[in-house]
């Protein structure tokens, strides 16, 4: 072993003379990550007991911190839910919005004045008179899909919080119901945005695991069609069946189930979007097969949200989110249709009227709610009353020639809101309510921000914990290995000293010539390299650079005293050489007198044992002794 300077550098020549490890003293802190695995191979077979106990303490502290953060997250989430619920209660669990479609190129030349927006009021001018309709929110012609979604978002959260939710698009044909719900590729509507948001939101709020499944159906002339069902195999002579056998069932708890309806699990947004596109196509296909009926059917999409956390084992709490593109409401009035078209129009109007009756009854808190009147209201029964939230977006056209239908839609909205225009709340109460809502919204935002902070802290603590656990596991393995190696080393060094020189006990070595048997240092190197590989594999498995850095810093933290001690030990055994920095005289082991193992250990080490074999053993033993 060549010691140039205690403070500078140590060179450890290996058996083949090629692998010379230069370790800077560590005082200057100039060890690099690349050096660490080698250093670890030399040094990490023992972690100081105090370091290990520190590590264990740190791990238990982190575990405690994680428990605390999780419970903080839970509390904050509950607080946020409570606040959201209060806000929605203030706003009303049944809300009615109005969206005015912009003028289309086909009616650009027409008069666009009959509909005027005044805050949350739509004023309709007809035959020289004005009539105002109040809404919870009005979206004017230049409102974007984003503007609409911002107002829809809280109700989605409510669905994630466990409430049943219904979002309806209502209005005359061509007023933009499908545009609002589906949108276009560059202007996605509520459904694709909601799907994205659900997955995003569920990923952020990981306190309870949430899974989603999707169903889509169409209500046509009072019959149901499963839009996600596999294509039926049909013989050529069989007529195309528009509707499947779906039965609406209500259990004792009032939960509605549609027997036979396809329900697909959706694990991410792309899968959800795939099924959604498939459902829409099925609807579109049926419209071409059966003579353009899409606008005269109701298209319903149901997302079932299952909350697995918190509930007793095996019982997931479920909530339903319905997004409904209702059939156009004008055909009967406008076209004076006959035959099938008349029947379709009648069916739509009847079910829309039934929906209006149900919503109005709920709004007025009537004891009897007429759910059973139509298939549409039967299906939505458990998602319209009690703790459910309802959002109706009424679509109107800005064109004068559609004024008749516009007034019809407004009347429907007014009925759904359950408040007569002249009985609207006084302005002061409205303002007070707005103020309260704003306060609650601020409080909710704060709770949400705190939740996000706690979530970030939790993520950091969890990743740190996993790193520390890995380091601890490696350290524990290494300590066990070191114990084994220390035992082996004792035997090996005894063999090195005794075996070749002990002419009375050569029996075990007889089968192989001496130069073919593994030397102690090669065995040690093999074992060290195995540990190094094992360690490297662990680090790689952990997949984090920081864990490597952590190991590095750990190695560094106890490397310096070790090396110093080794050097001190070496200078104790080689006082002359250490002082003069002169290599010892080369001696051949065979030339040595047979010695006992203990005397061999005490003897000054010479480079004759392939320059450093005993030194290496001694070096390692000294380091472990130090620790
Ligand atoms: N807010 C809007 N901005 C831009 N274009 C719109 C908007 N609303 C509707 N449109 C356009 O108006 C046309 C009719 O809209 P849409 O098909 O959504 O109406 P609809 O009420 O769903 O009709 P139907 O009842 O027949 O299904 C479409 O070309 C659509 O792109």
UniProtKB/TrEMBL annotation:
Gene3D superfamilies: Kinesin motor domain. Residues 583-601 have a biased composition (Polar residues). GO terms for molecular function: ATP binding; microtubule binding; microtubule motor activity. Pfam families: Kinesin. Residues 52-79, 430-471 form a coiled coil. One of its GO terms (cellular component) is microtubule. Signal peptide: none annotated. Keywords: ATP-binding, Coiled coil, Microtubule, Motor protein, Nucleotide-binding. Residues 93-419 form the Kinesin motor domain. Residues 570-613 are annotated as: Disordered. Belongs to the TRAFAC class myosin-kinesin ATPase superfamily. Kinesin family. KIN-14 subfamily. This is Kinesin motor domain-containing protein. It comes from Chenopodium quinoa (Quinoa). The lineage of its organism: Eukaryota, Viridiplantae, Streptophyta, Embryophyta, Tracheophyta.
């Amino acid at each position: 072993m060549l010691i140039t300077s205690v403070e500078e550098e140590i060179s450890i020549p290996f058996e083949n003379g090629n692998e010379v490890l230069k370790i800077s003293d560590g005082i200057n802190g100039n060890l690099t990550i690349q050096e660490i695995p080698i250093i670890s191979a030399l040094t990490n077979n023992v972690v100081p007991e105090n370091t290990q106990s520190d590590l264990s303490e740190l791990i238990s502290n982190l575990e405690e911190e994680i428990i605390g953060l999780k419970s903080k997250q839970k509390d904050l989430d509950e607080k946020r839910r409570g606040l959201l619920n209060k806000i929605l209660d203030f706003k009303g669990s049944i809300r009615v919005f109005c969206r005015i479609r912009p003028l289309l190129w086909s009616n650009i030349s027409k008069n666009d004045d009959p509909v005027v927006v005044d805050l949350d009021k739509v004023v309709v001018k007809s035959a020289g008179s004005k009539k105002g309709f109040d809404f919870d929110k009005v979206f004017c012609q230049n409102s974007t899909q984003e503007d609409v979604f911002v107002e829809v978002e809280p109700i989605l959260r409510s669905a994630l919080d466990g409430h049943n939710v219904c979002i309806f698009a209502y209005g005359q044909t061509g007023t933009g119901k499908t545009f609002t719900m589906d949108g276009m590729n560059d202007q996605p509507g509520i459904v694709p945005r909601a799907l994205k948001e659900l997955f995003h939101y569920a990923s952020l709020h990981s306190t309870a695991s949430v899974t989603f499944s999707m169903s889509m159906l169409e209500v046509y002339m009072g019959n149901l069609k499963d839009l996600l069902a596999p294509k039926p195999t049909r013989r050529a002579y069989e007529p195309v069946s528009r509707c499947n056998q779906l039965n609406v069932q209500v259990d004792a708890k009032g939960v509605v189930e549609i027997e036979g309806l396809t329900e697909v699990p959706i694990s991410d947004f792309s899968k959800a979007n795939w099924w959604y596109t498939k459902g829409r196509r099925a609807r579109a296909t049926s419209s071409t097969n059966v003579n353009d009926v899409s606008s005269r059917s109701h298209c319903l999409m149901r997302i079932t949200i299952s909350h697995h956390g918190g509930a007793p084992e095996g019982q997931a709490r479920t909530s339903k989110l319905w997004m409904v593109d209702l059939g156009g409401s004008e055909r009967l009035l406008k076209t004076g249709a006959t035959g099938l078209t008349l029947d379709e129009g009648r069916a739509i109007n009847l079910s829309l009227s039934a929906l209006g009756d149900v919503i109005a009854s709920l709004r007025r808190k009537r004891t009897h709610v007429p759910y059973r009147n139509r298939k549409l209201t039967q299906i939505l029964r458990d998602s319209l009353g009690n703790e459910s939230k309802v959002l109706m977006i009424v679509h109107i056209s800005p064109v004068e020639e559609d004024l008749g239908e516009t007034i019809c839609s407004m009347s429907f909205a007014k009925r759904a809101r359950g408040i007569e225009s002249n009985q609207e709340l006084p302005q002061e109460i409205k303002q007070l309510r707005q103020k309260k809502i704003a306060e609650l919204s601020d409080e909710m935002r704060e709770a949400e921000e705190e939740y996000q902070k706690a979530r970030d802290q939790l993520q950091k603590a969890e990743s740190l914990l996993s790193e520390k656990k890995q380091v601890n596991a490696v350290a524990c393995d290494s300590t066990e290995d070191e114990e084994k190696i220390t035992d082996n080393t004792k035997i090996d060094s005894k063999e090195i000293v005794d075996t070749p020189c002990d002419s009375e006990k050569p029996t075990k070595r007889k089968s192989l010539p001496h130069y073919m048997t593994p030397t102690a240092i090669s065995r040690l190197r093999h074992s060290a390299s195995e540990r190094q590989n094992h360690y490297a594999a662990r680090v790689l498995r952990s997949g984090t650079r920081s864990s490597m850095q952590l190991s590095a810093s750990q190695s560094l933290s106890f490397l310096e005293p070790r090396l110093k001690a080794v050097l001190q030990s070496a200078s104790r055994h080689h006082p002359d050489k250490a002082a003069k920095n002169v290599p010892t005289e080369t001696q051949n082991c065979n030339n040595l007198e047979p010695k006992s193992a203990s005397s061999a250990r005490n003897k000054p080490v010479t480079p004759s044992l392939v320059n450093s074999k005993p030194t290496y053993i001694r070096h390692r033993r000294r380091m472990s002794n130090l620790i």
